[in-house]
């Protein structure tokens, strides 16, 4: 199954942040929206990084509460791994596992189309396994 199916189900909304936003605001945005990462974009909506709750935890553990005034660019990951609408859900799951991250922006060229999280992928996998089990049960009952 391609990511298009997943994004159509969960929606294409993406919350982005500027590289110059303070980490204090990032805490608030993540909390208010109940999400774990923000895509960092420049003024032309081009992706320049990603910042997740893990980056915040690391920064606070290392430098203390003074990081709250620091800009996003000081702790974000600049080399962002992205995926496209045609990518297969299983491939994306593999990439997340190998890269040890739980979020991936979905793009078409420079255009940001959505964000897929490990939670979305796991939810899809559970539905898929349940569907396979139901198919198997009806096949067994039919023979
Ligand atoms: P996460 O598991 O998504 O909270 O992220 C763990 C670490 O990987 C953090 O340092 C993130 O900035 C980074 N990260 C998250 N998503 C991506 C991504 N798609 N590409 C590259 N790095 C990422």
Describe this structure in words.
Helix content is 46%, strand content 18%. The chain has helices at residues 3-10, 23-33, 53-63, 89-99, 118-142; strands at residues 16-17, 37-41, 47-52, 103-108, 111-117. The two termini are 29 Å apart. It has a single domain (3-142), classed as CBS-domain (Roll), CATH 3.10.580.10. The relative contact order is 0.18. Strand 4 and strand 5 (111-117) form a beta hairpin. Helix 4 (89-99) packs across helix 5. It has 143 residues and is α+β, with helices and mostly antiparallel strands. Strands 1-2-3 form a 3-stranded mixed sheet. It has a two-stranded antiparallel ribbon with strand order 4-5. The mean pLDDT is 94. The protein binds adenosine monophosphate. The site of adenosine monophosphate (AMP) has 15 residues, from strand 3, helix 3 and strand 4.
What's the CATH class label? Alpha Beta
Rg of Cα set: 18 Å
Give the full name of the CATH homologous superfamily. CBS-domain
* CATH topology name: CBS-domain
Shape: elongated
The small-molecule ligands in this entry are: adenosine monophosphate
**In oligomeric terms, what are we looking at?**
single chain
CATH architecture: Roll
End-to-end Cα distance? 29 Å
Largest sheet: 3 strands, mixed
Structural class: alpha+beta
Number of strands: 5
Q: How much beta, percentage-wise?
A: 15-25%
Taken together, the total number of domains comes to: 1
Give helix % range.
40-55%
Strand line-up of the largest beta sheet = 1-2-3
User: How confident overall, as mean pLDDT?
Assistant: 94
- Report low-confidence residues grouped into runs of 5 or more: none
Q: Total number of helical segments? A: 5
Order of helices and strands: HEHEEHHEEH
């Amino acid at each position: 199954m391609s990511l298009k199916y997943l994004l159509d189900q969960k929606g294409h909304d993406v919350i982005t942040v500027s590289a110059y936003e303070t980490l204090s605001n990032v805490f608030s945005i993540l909390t208010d929206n109940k999400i774990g990462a923000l895509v960092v974009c420049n003024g032309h909506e081009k992706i320049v990084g990603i910042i997740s709750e893990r980056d915040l935890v690391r920064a606070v553990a290392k430098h203390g509460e003074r990081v709250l005034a620091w800009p996003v660019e000081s702790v974000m990951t600049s080399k962002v791994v992205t995926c496209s609408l045609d990518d297969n859900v299983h491939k994306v799951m593999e990439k997340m596992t190998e890269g040890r991250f739980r979020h991936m922006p979905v793009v078409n060229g420079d255009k940001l189309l959505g964000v897929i999280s490990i939670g979305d992928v796991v939810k899809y996998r559970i539905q898929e396994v349940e569907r396979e089990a139901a198919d198997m049960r009806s096949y067994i009952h039919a023979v």
